TrEMBL record:
Family from the record: Belongs to the thiolase-like superfamily. HMG-CoA synthase family.
Listed InterPro entries: HMG_CoA_synt_C_dom, HMG_CoA_synth_N, HMG_CoA_synthase_prok, Thiolase-like
EC numbers: 2.3.3.10
Species, as recorded: Balneatrix alpica
Name recorded for this polypeptide: Hydroxymethylglutaryl-CoA synthase
GO terms for MF: hydroxymethylglutaryl-CoA synthase activity
Pfam family membership, one: HMG_CoA_synt_N
PANTHER family: 3-HYDROXY-3-METHYLGLUTARYL COENZYME A SYNTHASE, HYDROXYMETHYLGLUTARYL-COA SYNTHASE
The keyword Transferase is assigned to this record: yes
This protein's UniProt keywords: Acyltransferase, Transferase
Top-tier EC class: transferase
Length: 389
């Protein structure tokens, strides 16, 4: 039986900072950001947005279009920037989306990797009971310290994927290559709102994990490199995909021209250049970018997926694009979402960055600012109160 991605939808905040603004403030050549790390803009959430509102906003178009929302048996919510140590962000999203009480909900964490774990678990559930559909939501706000090397690689975004039998977009093949290793390249202790990162080391571990996961995939009889037409990599910044792809091609002594190598990844990068890092969501926003921006019909083409989560866990797997996929995409809505965002100046960026996270249990009403369908309206007695806009 074929199992895979039946629907995909993403969301990002209505504010963004152009990295030219950051470069001017730091007196850095903007080409370092635009070319050196391959990022042009980064999304900044409004004070009344968080991973719940973004994740529910990403999933809303999928749920609205379902004739039987009760066929969603499970909601898996993947995030690095969760809002509660105990309660799953997915339970809040479940309520905002009006999903049935008969749906199981859980949150998954392993840095930027956990959406891939969610998708593999979803495929297993659907393979066991093909009438089930599983909603996977990946949602994150990437935050680093001001003036750190990670600052230009911030961002925010969420993606929702419906996993089903006989999928309309991408069939996921069962074989995976895996690599897990206890390393401290990027982490965030419970008391911190920004990540700690050993930047250069993290890029080295990313490449090492790619090699190990790929080799594990091949050792088990995985497809050869030349069978793949495209590659979706985890995208902490888009230049990382170029480095990763060059690494993989070199490892396999592939004889591709620079243009041929670039063509295998370039369409995956279009949205992330403008959204920034969205941790768990980033690779799957890259998939939406590929499906929606490919210059030709890519039906039947094979995509290699490399998912990486610091700490670290990595996975390589393959997916095949289903013929007719184009009619199920949300290209217009996604491009409108990006086009309608508002650019902010540096002062506004600092205001959004520093928005307080009250911990005193008092009543804090939050001014309406997001243009998304859901908002965090208040925090009262330590309870987050969400509402539809
Ligand atoms: N024009 C063009 N390019 C320029 C330039 C200019 N004027 N000035 C510099 N560059 C180039 C540099 O040559 C360099 O290119 P190469 O990597 O090809 O050598 C590139 O711009 C970056 O410059 P630096 O090497 O000086 O890098 P930096 O010190 O500013 O930091 C970084 C880069 C370490 C990635 C930093 O952005 C960072 O710490 N980011 C957060 C961590 C991260 O994203 N890690 C990725 C792997 S971990 C992961 O994937 C999980 C996750 O999501 C976090």
């Amino acid at each position: 039986m074929k199992v895979g991605i039946d629907d995909i939808s993403f969301y990002t905040s209505n504010y963004y900072l152009d990295l030219r603004t950051l470069a001017e403030v730091h007196n850095i050549d903007v080409e370092k950001y635009y070319v050196g790390i391959g990022q042009e803009q980064m999304g900044m959430p409004a004070p009344d947005e968080d991973v719940v509102t973004m994740g529910a906003a990403a999933a809303l178009p999928i749920v609205r279009q379902l004739e039987q929302p009760e066929s969603i048996s499970t909601l898996l919510f993947a995030t690095e920037s969760g809002i509660d140590q105990s309660k799953s962000a997915g339970v809040f999203a479940h309520q905002l989306l009006g999903l049935p009480a008969t749906c199981r909900v859980v949150e998954l964490k392993q840095a930027c990797y956990s959406a891939t774990a969610a998708i593999q678990m979803a495929c297993a559930l659907v393979a066991r009971q093909p009438q089930q559909r599983v909603l996977v939501i990946a949602s994150d706000i990437a935050r680093y310290d001001l003036d750190s090397s990670g600052e230009p690689t911030q961002g925010c975004g969420a993606v929702a994927l419906l996993i089903a039998a006989n999928p309309r977009l991408v069939e996921i093949e069962p074989l995976s290559g895996l690599h897990t290793e206890d390393v401290m390249d990027f982490w965030r202790p419970n008391y911190r709102s920004t990540a700690l990162v050993d930047g250069k080391y993290s890029t080295k571990i990313y490449l090492k994990s790619l090699k190990s996961a790929w080799q594990h995939y091949r050792q088990q009889g995985g497809r050869s490199l030349r069978e793949f037409a495209f590659f979706c990599y985890h995208l902490p910044f888009t230049r990382m995909a170029q480095k990763a792809h060059a690494h993989l091609l070199k490892l396999e002594s592939a004889e591709l021209t620079a243009a041929e190598a670039e063509a295998q990844i370039t369409d995956t990068l279009q949205y992330n250049k403008r959204i920034g890092n969205s941790y768990t969501a980033s690779m799957y926003i890259g998939l939406a970018s590929l499906l929606e921006n490919a210059r030709e019909d890519i039906s039947e083409k094979l995509i290699g997926f490399f998912s990486y989560g610091s700490g670290c866990v990595a996975e390589f797997y393959a997916g095949r694009v289903v013929p007719g996929y184009q009619q199920w995409l949300r290209k217009h809505e996604h491009q409108q979402l990006l086009a309608n965002r508002q650019q902010v100046d540096y002062q506004t960026y600092r205001r959004l960055y520093a928005y307080p996270n009250p911990v005193d249990g008092q009543e804090h009403n939050i001014a309406a600012e997001t243009t998304g369908p859901f908002r965090l309206a208040a925090i009262n007695q330590h309870k987050r109160i969400y509402q539809a806009v």
